[in-house]
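Standup notes
- DV: blocked on the single-chain target, sequence here:
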Amino acid sequence: MPSLIYIADPMCSWCYGFSSELRALMDGLPGLRLEIVVGGLRAYNTVPMDDALRSKLQNAWTQVAARTGLSFSSSALDRKDFIYNTEPACRAVVAARMLAPSACLAVFEAIQKAFYVEGKDTTQTDVLCEIAAGTIAAAGISMDAQTFLVTFKSEAAVMATYHDIEQTKRWKVQGFPTLVLERDGALDLVTSGYVTMPELVERLQALVDTEAGETASA
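- DV (later): unblocked, structure below
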């Protein structure tokens, strides 16, 4: 059965821009499985944001807003001594994947909304556990922040996050978001970077048509 692999980071602005396009695609293809691999855009960063990074991010966020029409909170850019470490947010997604796979994408989206729209500090454990547990519970799966925290802090979640990031490097992913079609172990790139939902459909159809043509000529 074909599936999609979504390689992304919940604190990546272009992934935030891509979220509605991916959601529209998945809603239109309910039988297609989606696996999220967290890329670790700025994972393990320990250096507070300086003016150069702040300016770079502001420029990127402005571009995403112009392209997608999405709104952005400036809270992260205004926060003094903010350390843009995306590992905790990535690990929250991994923990959700471990606890409630069917709600993993919803947790990913909820973290994006909290950071980019509501201006919450999604580098903080308590913030992430509250977001993730609430999202999972809203999906009809029993969950509370304390239960989620146990998995979030576990060695299994820490290592699974690390392995996701290392896998991203081995795949030589050039940027986020990246979407890959997996069929019987074979991987085909759908997109590396933001595209709209209609473009995603066209690219997926082209891959399917190419395989059908190769099969017919074999």
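- Follow-up: The first strand starts at residue 3 and ends at 8.
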